[in-house]
């Protein structure tokens, strides 16, 4: 079988195993990306979660000798939740971003890439391959753009004509010289909705993101959330979809294609108060299969506390006081103190005053004082 015919069979096989788009890109170095990444580092716009070695991120030949082609894949995920529960007073709910609905996409894409590798090896036993998803060295988006999967949008996501930006991306470097696909023209035009509606101004300009201000990144941090962002995250427990939901290219893109990514509404939009006391074991059993659990329960609990403060949920005050008085983690105690002040009940004020006398941690004390300051401002008003 000639290579051209095999490439057609590979594309057909990819569709059979649940890959929604596949493209083929050159494994030449990503020189433009290299300049962008260096600039991002200089501006301190990186999240810190990505590979820090710019050479590895932009030179595929450092990751696989004789690299010739990169196969890019995309799998669509749903943007719509059926029977989504509504939070009510006394039963408030948080939200996980759409990329964390259903099965962890890292596992789903790796499974498909493993099948692709086996299919290639069955026809080309000497083929060399290296696959990666999200946490690999290469930029998934740069590869997808070069492979014609979609265009790199102003919100820094890849947008596909078929599925909008609601796609998971992965890639495989190989030494097989496949026929290459053409990159897609940018179709954002003059639209800047994503830039103008980003809650924290994280999209500095079209195509440039300050990850340090991005709510998606901030919800994954483990320390105290900086004050300026606490009122911005709303009820988000993990991730942020604002720059996707406002995008005109995502209109009517429900993408309810793969059952494994359909959300369990009670996981994707969980009740907030039960999260405050959930054990590690319970958290792993309930949320362990979704990608949003990768940082453990602490960031989710901190975000749940901030969400309850956002709602000014009075019914949560006893549980927050319990955290303030007995939780071993300073970030949780301190965030609870801040939230108690934000909600502003007499019971909360009493608890903060007692905690101020007992607390030994300087950062928690600072948060207690912030909480008390909310009461002082209220009394002035």
UniProtKB/TrEMBL annotation:
An example Gene Ontology molecular-function term: epoxyqueuosine reductase activity
Domain of life: Bacteria
EC number assigned by the record: 1.17.99.6
Pfam family of the protein (one): QueG_DUF1730
Enzyme class, broadest EC rank: oxidoreductase
Keyword tags: 4Fe-4S, Cytoplasm, Iron, Iron-sulfur, Metal-binding, Oxidoreductase, Queuosine biosynthesis, tRNA processing
Keyword Protease applies: no
The 4Fe-4S ferredoxin-type domain, residue ranges: 176-208
Keyword set includes Manganese: no
PANTHER family: EPOXYQUEUOSINE REDUCTASE
NCBIfam families associated with the record: tRNA epoxyqueuosine(34) reductase QueG (TIGR00276)
Protein name: tRNA epoxyqueuosine(34) reductase QueG
Highest classification ranks of the organism: Bacteria, Bacillati, Bacillota, Bacilli, Bacillales
Gene name tied to this protein: queG
């Amino acid at each position: 079988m000639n290579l051209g015919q095999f490439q057609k069979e590979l594309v057909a096989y990819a569709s059979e195993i649940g890959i929604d788009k596949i493209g083929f890109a050159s494994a030449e170095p990503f020189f433009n990306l290299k300049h962008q990444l260096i600039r991002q580092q200089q501006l301190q716009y990186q999240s810190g979660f990505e590979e820090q070695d710019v050479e590895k991120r932009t030179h595929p030949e450092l990751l696989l000798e004789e690299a010739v082609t990169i196969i890019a894949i995309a799998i669509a995920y749903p943007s719509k939740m059926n029977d989504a529960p509504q939070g009510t007073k006394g039963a408030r709910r948080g939200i996980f971003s759409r990329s964390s609905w259903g099965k962890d996409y890292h596992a789903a894409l790796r499974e498909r890439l493993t099948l692709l590798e086996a299919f290639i090896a069955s026809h080309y036993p000497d083929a060399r391959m290296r696959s990666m998803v999200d946490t690999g060295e290469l930029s998934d988006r740069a590869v997808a753009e070069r492979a014609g999967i979609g265009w790199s949008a102003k919100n820094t996501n890849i947008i596909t004509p078929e599925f909008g930006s609601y796609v998971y991306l992965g890639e495989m470097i190989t030494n097989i010289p496949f026929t290459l696909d053409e990159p897609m023209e940018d179709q954002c035009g003059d639209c800047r909705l994503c830039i103008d509606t980003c809650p924290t101004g994280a999209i500095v300009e079209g195509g440039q993101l300050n990850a340090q201000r991005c709510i998606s990144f901030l919800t994954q941090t483990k320390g105290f959330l900086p004050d300026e962002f606490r009122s911005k995250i709303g009820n988000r427990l993990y991730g942020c979809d604002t720059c996707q939901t406002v995008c005109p290219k995502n209109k009517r893109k429900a993408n309810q294609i793969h059952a494994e990514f359909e959300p369990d509404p009670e996981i994707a939009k969980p009740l907030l108060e039960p999260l405050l006391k959930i054990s590690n074991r319970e958290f792993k059993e309930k949320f362990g299969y979704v990608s949003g659990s990768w940082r453990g329960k602490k960031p989710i609990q901190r975000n749940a506390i901030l969400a309850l403060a956002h709602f000014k949920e009075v019914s949560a005050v006893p549980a927050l006081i319990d955290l303030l008085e007995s939780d071993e983690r300073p970030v949780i105690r301190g965030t609870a103190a801040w939230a108690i002040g934000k909600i502003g009940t007499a019971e909360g004020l009493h608890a903060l005053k007692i905690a101020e006398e007992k607390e030994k941690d300087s950062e928690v004390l600072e948060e207690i004082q912030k909480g008390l300051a909310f009461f002082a401002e209220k009394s002035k008003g």
